[in-house]
Amino acid sequence: MLRPYGIKGQKRKKREERYDKEEDEVEAEEQSIERAKRAMVEEKEMAMETSGKEEEELEGQTHEMAGIPIVPSDLKTKKPGLIFVLERASLEVAKVGKSYQILNSDDHANFLWKNNKNPADYRPDIVYQALLSILDSPVNKAGRLRAVYVKTDKGVLFEVKPHVRIPRTYKRFAGIMLQLLQKLSITAVGKREKLLRVIKNPVTQYLPVNSRKIGFSYSSEKLVKMNKYVAAVSDDVDIVFVVGATAHGKIDCDYIDDFIAIHVKIQVLSIKIWLC
Questions:
Q1: Cα-based distances in Å from 206 to 66, 83, 91, 120, 211
Q2: CA atoms within 13 A on the CB side of 98
Q3: E strand or H helix that includes residue 185
């Protein structure tokens, strides 16, 4: 049987009413989206204005010390920067057999005895452990390490950038040191930045003018607590730590202001200097 015509008309009216309601909902959604976009644009404009004011304030603060690069975080913390100088590092290159190598007491003892040299003086592992401790230290991770300089026993001076990652094995480290002493620089992979480079002596020309040079020595009678010693230094003075990277003997540097002694604690698989 056929359905009456009136029933079909009623159904069509209901569909038209539903369609009108959907259009109203779409228009409301579009209006809400436009309002949200306008609010986002206004927030971005406000953020740009505030950031511009902050940059102008920081620029005004940095112009107070012309010629000295200042990091904004340092302006807030007012903490001094740290520089390490490793003196008398045992990094000597020699031709052993058919290849050039960094001499060390473990692998080249016979070679050193034949050439009338004491194997105990050839300890490149000391500078290797020192660089690992410095570059992996909380001081470097906090961004307070300014630079690291290494001066070999033969008088060669080179710079190590604070963001360099030293190889985890000694053999790879010795290979990099050999390449550095032969080619005078090590560049980053895919970049032109020189991570390690040989520079001219003396090291004092690279140190800040207003800095305190502190040397470490077991023979020093001045045994200090490092926290108190550093806290006594002025906030606007950078600190230069001069450490001997040799197995024995005392570093003799005329630019050091003060020699101090601290406690050293040796643990298994690592060497840590406890600043107590």
A1: 17, 10, 22, 31, 11
A2: 0
A3: strand 185-187
Report the C-alpha gap between 149 and 161 in whole angstroms.
9
Structure confidence at residue 175 (pLDDT):
93
Phi/psi for 144 (5° steps) reads -100, -5
Give the count of beta carbons closer than 10 Å to the beta carbon of residue 30. 10
Q: Who has greater pLDDT, 194 or 270? A: 194
247, 123 contact by CB (below 8 A): yes
* CA–CA dist 41, 35 (Å, integer): 10
Strand partners for 94: 101
Torsion from C-alpha of 191, 197, 200, 206, nearest 10 degrees = 80
For residue 4, what pLDDT band results from cuts at 50, 70 and 90? low
pTM of the model: 0.66
